[in-house]
Amino acid sequence: MSDICFQPAWRQMEALNLGTITSVELLNLHVDQFNRVNKTINAVIKTDLERARQHANALDRMRADGKILGPLHGLPMTIKDTFDVDNMPATAGAPEFANRARPVEDANVVMRVKASGGLIWGKTNVPYLAGEWQSFNRLFGQTNNPYNLDVTPGGSSGGSAAALAAGITPIEIGSDIGGSLRIPSHFTGVCALKPTFGLVSQHGHVPPSPEYAGEVDLNVVGPMARTVRDLKIMRSVIQAGATATQSGFALSLENKRLAVWAEQEEWPLSTAVQEVISSAVRELEASEAEVVRVKPDVDPKELMDVYLGLLIPVVAMDMPQLRSVGLKLLRPILKRLQKYEKSPFTDGNWAVKATLSHHEWMQIDGRRAALKRILRDFFKTYDALIMPISATPAIPHNTRGTVLERFITFDGKSHPYATHLNWISLASALHLPAVSIPAGRTPSGLPVGIQIIGPQNSDARLLDIAEAIEGLLGGYRRPTTDLGVY
């Protein structure tokens, strides 16, 4: 019966609806799986099991009385530790948020999950302030990848992705401002939807600090799951007005024009990723779709400069005031030195962009608007754009130094650690939806994903295209290890 933990959420809901399992039983099976594997992967870092079991009993009684709250009625799940849950306030891996008073107001997406009958019993690990691509912090330690404990499941939704891949939870909710949904999905062989910016409320997400009441530019909240069909179900729950139904075409690639952008001199790709993506593209070319290797008329250097000009001020929101003052004093010198820097991923560029004036930010926003127009025209010709997610499969754990001080090595060459921002920048900077799905595995068994990008507000149609491609490429495959726990 424990194999049900690896079934898609929609199949688990079928079992609940048919009465072949109760919510209490399903919760206990997932907790058993948590007890078997979490000590080795450290994906779930806090639980509220007593209240969860009480809630599951209540949901089972409601079902017996014919009262169904919604599409998640009785389904147990975990959620990224950047979302407030009444008895489990978000810490975002930050010691300064470790002792927040409880209860707290549920995040908006948590309210929606509960209203639809979902049962949140645990929180999943993230990096400090959800600020990088490995999930480790001083509060809860390091999360390991279920496919290979020596590599990371990614960040910042790394605990979420690891829990999904390891059968601890059937569905999750994460967030993405710098690839935080897509990179963990790519590293662990699961699926994610980065929605069009603004469609899903960020209320109750930390960072920024819990006191901040606004919606942060670039950041999105989206579902993670083992199948695209599950992404559709969760989207219908967390997005106001969305449904889980198809957008109007059968799950077929017939007459679809798919663009592929998988080569860019400034954005290196490891041979391991190239080979998986090339194989996936050949599968698409043999399908009913029309596949064209073409990129939007976008200068990668301009895109990255715009993206970092929008991203870094957001990341710097919680910067200590003394450091902010110091950077502003040094800014004129650092700005003059920028022209000598060969990489955008430097302390100097970070400092200059962290202290932008509002007028400078508006100029960057205007440059973004020009790039958005290019993409609107591009998507008049193509139904979707397929791109890599990151230069490498899951990378070995390396927490020495800062994000800007680290390097990643592949194919005998060293590259800035922040190279992870390259391929995800288009969808993030321009507010575009992107669906991540597994594309295959490397010879060593590590997953590799692709992102399928569409025009703004095309999320429903994009999910249909992604589900059709998922069927072609095979989708999620359960990890096999020598740990004897799967």
Which regions have little confidence, pLDDT < 50, spanning 5+ residues?
none
Q: Which percent band covers the strand fraction?
A: 5-15%
Distance between the termini: 13 Å
Secondary structure class reads alpha+beta
Question: Helicity range of the residues?
Answer: 25-40%
List the helices and strands and how they pair.
Elements: H1 9-18, H2 23-41, E1 44-47, H3 49-64, E2 76-80, H4 108-115, E3 119-124, E4 136-137, E5 141-142, H5 158-165, E6 171-176, H6 182-188, E7 191-194, E8 220-225, H7 228-238, E9 257-260, H8 271-285, E10 290-293, H9 300-315, H10 321-337, H11 347-354, H12 358-378, E11 384-388, E12 407-410, E13 413-416, H13 425-429, E14 434-441, E15 447-453, H14 459-473
Parallel strand pairs: 2-3, 9-10, 9-11
Antiparallel strand pairs: 1-3, 4-5, 6-8, 7-8, 7-14, 11-15, 12-13, 14-15
